[in-house]
Amino acid sequence: MQTYSKITGTGSYLPPKRVTNQELADRLARDGIETSDAWIVERTGIRARHFAEVDTPSSELATHAARQALQAAGRSAEDVDLIIVATSTPDMVFPSTASIVQHKLGAYGCPAFDVQAVCSGFVYALTVADAMIRAGSARTALVIGAEVFSRILNFKDRTTCVLFGDGAGAVVLEASDTPGVLASDIHADGRYREILHVPGTVCGGEVLGEPLLRMDGQAVFKLAVGLLDKAARAALDKAGLTFSDVDWLVPHQANIRIMMSTARKLQLPPERVVVTVHEHGNTSAASIPLALDHAVRTGQIRAGQRVLMEGVGGGFTWGAVVVQM
Ligand code: ACO
C-alpha cells in the first residue's frame, strides 16, 4: 500500500505583546522616524504584530505551537520521530532550534534539525518531512515554523521595521494510507541573495557586518508575484489538479497586495484566501502555519479540503505545497 503523509493536527502561538501600528509609529517618532497607521495599512494590510520579550527565543514559541498541534492530533511527545524547525532566527548558532524544542518537549532520540529558507522555510520543511515519511524514515513528524524577527529588525529603517512580527505555527504530519501532501515545488536562486538579507556574522567573538534585516522592497515585490504564481502552478500540475480544485490559498503573509495579486493570477476569489497579515505582520517561516492553524481553528478549513500553501523569502527562495486536509 502507498504511504502518504497527512496533516493530523495544527497549532500556533503568538507572544502576548501585541503592538499596533500606532504604538509602533509612536515608538519610531521618539527617534525622529516618521510613519503612520494609514501608510502601513494602505501599503501592506498590516494593523498589528506581536513581539516576543527579549528572554523568549524562537524555541519557546515553537514549543507552545508544537504542544498545541500534538494535542489537536491526539499525539504525545513520545510518538514524535522527527522534528523539523524552519527558522531564520534560531536561539543560537548551534545546537539547532529543533534540538532545543526536542528537549523542551521531551521527545528524546528522534532526528531534529532546522531548515533555513527564510519565509519559504515552512514550505521547504513540509516538503522534506513529506519525503522522509514517504520514504519510510519517519511516521510522526512535527513540522514547525518559528521566528523572533523583532531581534533582527532595524528600528531606524521605517521601510522594513513596520513589516515583521514574531510567532510560531506547527503541524503534526503523519504516515497515512490516504492522500495528504499531494505535491510540492521548491526553488532557490542565490543571484538575488542581496535583495533581502541580514549581512552580519560572528567571527572570533566579534560581530562582523550589521546583523539587521535589509530589504529592497520593490525588487522583492516584483520577483515575488511572478515566482509565487509559477510555483503554485507547478505544484498543482504535479498533483494533477487545477485552480478550481483548490478550496483555500494559504499564502505567506507578507503583504496583502502580493497575496491578492497572486490569488488573482491563480483565478482564486479573495474569499478563498486565508488572511492573517493584518494581525500578525510578516512572521517569516511562521506565517503559513500560523495562518493555517487560524483557518482550521476558526472552521474555515475543513477535513477533506484542498489547501495550496506558497511562500517566498530571502535567498531568494520560493515554493508551494498542495495538501488535502
Ligand atoms: N512609513 C511611511 N513612509 C514610508 C515607510 C513607512 N513605514 N516606508 C517607506 N516609506 C516611504 C518611502 O520612503 C517612499 O517615500 P518617497 O516616495 O518620498 O521616497 C514612499 O514611502 C514609497 O516607498 P516604496 O518603497 O516605493 O513603497 P512601496 O509601495 O513599494 O511599499 C513595501 C513598500 C511595503 C516594502 C513593498 O515594497 C513591499 O511590500 N515589498 C515586498 C516586501 C515583502 O514582501 N517582504 C517579505 C518577503 S519575505 C521574507 O523573506 C522576509
UniProtKB/TrEMBL annotation:
The UniProt family comment states:
Belongs to the thiolase-like superfamily. FabH family.
Keyword list (alphabetical) reads: Acyltransferase, Cytoplasm, Fatty acid biosynthesis, Fatty acid metabolism, Lipid biosynthesis, Lipid metabolism, Multifunctional enzyme, Transferase
One Pfam match, given by its short name, reads ACP_syn_III
Keyword Metal-binding assigned to the entry: answer is: no
The answer on whether this UniProt entry bears the keyword Transferase reads yes
Function, as annotated: Catalyzes the condensation reaction of fatty acid synthesis by the addition to an acyl acceptor of two carbons from malonyl-ACP. Catalyzes the first condensation reaction which initiates fatty acid synthesis and may therefore play a role in governing the total rate of fatty acid production. Possesses both acetoacetyl-ACP synthase and acetyl transacylase activities. Its substrate specificity determines the biosynthesis of branched-chain and/or straight-chain of fatty acids.
State what protein this is by name: Beta-ketoacyl-[acyl-carrier-protein] synthase III
